[in-house]
UniProtKB/TrEMBL annotation:
It is found in: Membrane. The keyword Transmembrane applies. This is (Mediterranean fruit fly) hypothetical protein. GO terms for molecular function: L-amino acid transmembrane transporter activity. The chain crosses the membrane at residues 82-104, 146-170, 182-199, 206-230, 250-268, 288-308, 328-349, 370-387, 393-418, 430-452. One of its GO terms (cellular component) is vacuolar membrane. InterPro entries: AA_transpt_TM. Pfam families: Aa_trans (PF01490). It comes from the Eukaryota. It comes from Ceratitis capitata (Mediterranean fruit fly).
């Protein structure tokens, strides 16, 4: 991040601290004003010039949740059943929103205590343990590395899913309309080329136009999808209200993958000019999640009712082949996901570069970043080509990474931060977080086993 990020000026250089867009290392020294004040407000030390607007933050948050996951919701309902799928989607949506809220709130509170403008996800976990109960303070370094490693694994894996989705969409349209019978892996190789370009963008603010355009394309695609859903026969009688018990882990893994944008949350909140508008009512988070959960429930329910057991990993792939409107929907969604790739790639690269940048000379930072990003994207393309099947890949990523980072870690962080005397009446927050952590572990184990079994079946 050295070439495009402005740095935080230390007190040795200036008498005031300046928080900038992409530096989340929390090395900012206290200003004289902060030292004299009893109440430290992190927002006062954010970059008010280069920071994101509330609208920009909302666009990023929406885009982080409205990706390939929402198109997989009909498949999730197939693995859950009509009634179970609808009820569980609303419940999981509430749980995911709550976990993001407690993570952001914990981060904001710890920022006030240690007097820094912002902390990213991993730093929040580190500082919570570092300033928590004495017995847990030695775990602060592990907590930071665990979150950083999990985030990198999550978003590099999700980037592979994005490549598979884009390539599959173009493959289906071109093969049917032109008769060209190329293997989907050829399209994955072609998709790698634009990913190499958009993956070089290193400033979150510069990705706002891509997110905005992607959101427009997604809205148009959803409108076309809804048209096809309602234009065909809706059959309810042959759809189970609740699926077989062996299918339910795949349901939860897919839904958690679809809804969780946990890795984007802290970078978005950290770069807001007015972070106080992120939480609260309506707030950026609540506004985004109400829209997201509503769309997920509608698309999942109607998609499953329309296509039943024939539903694919992305609902757009079920649209009538060869029809211009269906082709437009598939291509628009593919382009929207391509535009999202930069945001998806930003998070793990930001983490990786912060941890290794000091190992390279400053004059070589730009060249090193270009080579590093290029190499990782090429490796991602290779993995995508090795597993070009969307459904089990989505479930596996959701089960392993998003269960841990989206639900388990926020609940643990809040518990450690509030321990021992701020856990509410009868310590209800402790029991609530124990439930969340248990749910996350169960989703991880059951979802991973079911997803791996599906992958094995495909390759057998």
């Amino acid at each position: 991040m050295a070439d495009t990020n402005t740095s935080i000026t230390t007190s040795k250089e200036k008498s005031s601290s300046v928080f900038t867009l992409n530096d989340f290392n929390s090395r900012t020294n206290l200003t004289e004003k902060a030292q004299l004040s009893d109440e430290y407000n992190p927002a006062d030390y954010r970059d008010q010039v280069k920071g994101q607007t509330t609208g920009g933050a909302l666009a990023h948050l929406l885009k982080s949740s409205l990706g390939t996951g929402i198109l997989a919701m009909p498949m999730a309902f197939y693995n859950g059943g009509l009634v179970f799928g609808m009820v569980a989607t609303l419940i999981v949506g509430f749980l995911c929103t709550h976990c993001v809220q407690i993570l952001v709130k914990t981060s904001q509170e710890i920022c006030k205590e240690i007097r820094v403008p912002a902390l990213n996800f991993a730093e929040t976990a580190e500082k919570v343990f570092e300033n928590g109960p004495k017995r847990l303070r030695s775990w602060s370094g592990f907590a930071k590395k665990f979150v950083d490693g999990g985030l990198m694994g999550t978003y590099f894996a999700a980037a592979c899913v994005y490549m598979v989705f884009i390539a599959t969409s173009f493959h289906d349209v071109i093969e049917y309309d032109t008769g060209i019978k190329w293997d989907v892996r050829v399209y994955i190789a072609i998709v790698v080329l634009p990913c190499l370009l958009i993956g070089q963008i290193r400033n979150l603010k510069w990705l706002v136009p891509f997110s905005a355009m992607a959101n427009i394309f997604i809205v148009v695609t959803f409108a076309i999808v809804l048209y096809y859903l309602f234009s065909g026969e809706m059959v309810f009688s042959d759809k189970p209200l609740i699926a077989k018990a062996t299918q339910l882990p795949l349901y939860f893994a897919t839904v958690i993958f679809a809804m969780e944008g946990i890795g984007v949350v802290m970078p978005v909140e950290n770069t807001m000019k007015k972070p106080q508008q992120f939480l609260g009512c309506p707030g950026v988070l609540n506004s985004a999640m109400i829209i997201v959960v509503s769309l997920y429930a509608v698309i999942g329910f109607l998609g499953y009712v329309r296509y039943g057991s024939d539903v694919l990993g992305s609902i757009t792939l079920n649209l009538q082949k060869g029809e211009p409107l269906a082709d437009v929907a598939k291509l628009l969604m593919a382009v929207a996901i391509l535009f999202t790739y930069g945001l998806q790639f930003y998070i793990p690269m930001d983490i990786l570069w912060r941890n290794i940048s000091d190992k390279f000379k400053e004059e070589n930072h730009n060249r090193t970043q270009i080579l590093l990003r290029t190499g990782i994207i090429l490796i991602s393309g290779g993995i995508a080509a090795a597993i070009p099947n969307l459904e089990p890949f989505i479930s596996l990523v959701g089960a392993i990474f998003f269960s841990l980072l989206g639900i388990f870690v926020p609940s643990v962080c809040e518990t450690v931060y509030l321990w021992p005397d701020r856990l509410g009446c009868c310590k209800w927050k402790l029991y609530k977080n124990i439930f969340l952590a248990t749910f996350a572990i169960c989703a991880l184990v059951a979802g991973s086993v079911a997803s791996i079994e599906e992958i094995v079946k495909i390759y057998k």
